[in-house]
Amino acid sequence: MSNIAGKAYAMNLITPVYVSTGWLSIFFVPGALCILKALSYWAGFTCGMLPAWIGIVTALLGVALVVLGLTSWLNITSKFNEFVLWGLGFVCFVATSLVSLNLATTIVLIVFGLLLLGVGFLFLSQGIVWLNRFIFWLAGLPVFQKSAFGGLLTLSLIHYARWVILRDKDFPVLSDNQPREKLKYGYMLFFSNFNGSWTQYVDSFSSAIPGGLNLLWHRNIGWPNAVPETPFNKYVVSKQIWTEHYYNAYPLASSNDVKSAKRVMAGVLNLSQNLDTISAEDFKKVYDQATLDLQFDLSQMEPTPIVSLADEAIAKRRRIESQEA
Amino acid sequence: MPNKSGNVYGLTTLCPLIYKDSNNNNESPVMELRKLLQGYDERDDSSPMMKVPNTYLARFFVLDDVIFQSCPYELEHLKSKYLVFTANFYGDLDPYLEGMYAAIPEEIKKIWHDAVGFNVADAQSFKAYIKKCQVTTTFLFNGSTDDPLATQLKSLYVKQEFSKFVFQNQGTSPELLLQEFKKLISTIKPSENLPTWKAGVGDLNKVVQY
């Protein structure tokens, strides 16, 4: 079992995510109702009659939609608010039935209705998981990246991290004999490579970017919020899976060492120019300036300090074994 | 592309595992796999991933099941166990997987021995298999650099040696400083590939590769 490779710690979290459409189903109902109302007007307009019978049909369809919403609500883990909002959809339908429309309003309604339907179907088919993916897409845009992940960059203890949101249909199927996964919830996998101990990392996250964490774990089931720390730590512990084998290409280096080494390399290459022609006094000047510029990047790397008692116990046993040998 | 951030690729794979014991012994294939993976240790340089070009970080673990959140949420289970293999590396997926198969073909066959649908005989079939197991990364965060691994390792070596040099040459006269710096440059050769640090080595006495 190895969550640690040199100065890097591997964290794997798997957290369930709501798939329920929740309050977003409100997009679906008025969208459908706008279309129905517009169609009823269009039918009345072209047939030269008031759409009384069409009004009845649309009313029945509206009721069917509400029943669909109720069924959806009953089948999903969900909440009272979904029922309330589907009910609101029905109220919308009744309201639109009472309004007399002209042709321009009808066209606007159709466009608006199609838009709402599109969003509604998207959420119905993809569920809330789609919203989580959208949040990550949005957070990844250059304009939002600093606000969403600026705290992570400031922490500077992470090499790389990733989030993977899966529905049951996303689990790979490699054989006809392999059973397909059937899961009620979506699942978010989080993999992080960071420096330091588990406690340092989790505490840093909680205190440095609580708002960002709450956004990234939006609608994850049981998410307790990043602050206060005690329930947050309990949540992380209960969702963590231990790594069987962890490989790190530079166990002696932290993420900051890798970044600073790039700057030191550039400085050394610059200093090594014209060594055969430069005078000792001039070299001293550029050397002093270079070391001043690189003062925060210069340090000697050593094997990692103790990050876990288990790791230290293994190191101790190996020292004893090597002495005995 | 969510799998990439700059030049860094974040590969995430879930490889379904065979449940039944194919070797007619008393241990499940999953247990054998765990033993194999836990036998690799970076402290004794036994990780096969050391030989795989451009791998920054990689991990293996077995996903037995999804995690139950407790009541009132529903208890649900996975129907298969999965070997989760993830890697952060420099460059694109195809050349990385080709390089991986070229470097450690026998270890790959051992690790994925009990994976469903693993009929790999060459680099092409390995690539095809891994791509079937790949899931798309939703978001990849890069908190480090995205240079080739060889560049990162050479820079770390140069940083280590130059830091030592600065420490040892405080207060040195300009003439001696220039002389010693020339010696340093002729030793560390910052513009050349060697010497450098070896990938995956955590012992200061063994890390330099000449």
Task: Report what the structure shows.
The complex is a heterodimer of chains A (325) and B (210). Chain A has helices spanning 28-47, 52-75, 80-97, 103-126, 128-140, 142-155, 198-208, 210-216, 229-239, 255-271, 280-293, 309-324; strands at 4-5, 8-17, 158-166, 186-195, 245-248. With 325 residues, chain A is α+β, with helices and mostly antiparallel strands. In chain A, helix 1 packs antiparallel against helix 2 and helix 2 runs antiparallel to helix 3. Chain B folds into two domains: 4-133, Alpha-Beta Plaits (2-Layer Sandwich), CATH 3.30.70; 149-209, no CATH class. In chain B, a hairpin with a 2-residue loop joins strand 1 (4-5) and strand 2 (8-16). In chain B, helix 2 packs across helix 4 (123-133). The longest helix of chain B is centred in the C-terminal third of the chain and has 20 residues, at 149-168. The two termini of chain B are 38 Å apart. The mean pLDDT of chain B is 92. Classes of the chains: A alpha+beta (325), B alpha+beta (210). Chains A and B meet through strand 2, helix 5, helix 6, strand 3 and strand 4 of A and strand 2, helix 1, strand 3, strand 4 and helix 4 of B.
Rg measurement of chain B, Å: 22 Å
Oligomer state equals: heterodimer
Mean of all residue-level pLDDT scores of chain A? 77
Number of domains of chain B: 2
Nearest-angstrom radius of gyration of chain A? 30 Å
Total individual domains of chain A:
3
CATH class of the largest domain in chain B: Alpha Beta
Structural class by helix and strand composition of chain A: alpha+beta
How would you describe the shape of chain B? Answer: elongated
Q: What is the CATH architecture annotation of the largest domain in chain B?
A: 2-Layer Sandwich
Shape of chain A: extended
In brief:
The complex is a heterodimer of chains A (325) and B (210). Chain A has 325 residues and is α+β, with helices and mostly antiparallel strands.
